[in-house]
Amino acid sequence: METDTEAKGERIIAEELQRLGWRESDLVTRRKNDPGKMAIAVRLRRETPLSTKDIAGRVHLCPRVLAEGFGK
Prior knowledge:
Blueprint: H1 4-20, H2 26-29, H3 35-47, H4 52-59, H5 63-69
Helix pairs in contact: 1-3, 3-4
């Protein structure tokens, strides 16, 4: 069963994919440091308590690049 946090994260991802004109599969095929993927991650981090590791896994970002982008 999906938690409220996970559901909110999925809703944000769906909104951002639509805004970018992407499909779910684009998260896998685009580069791990894609600016659009980073924008999704930043919004997820700002609006949910999801961990950096969870966000990186979900949007297929390099965890190191994501951590650097979050200033850690």
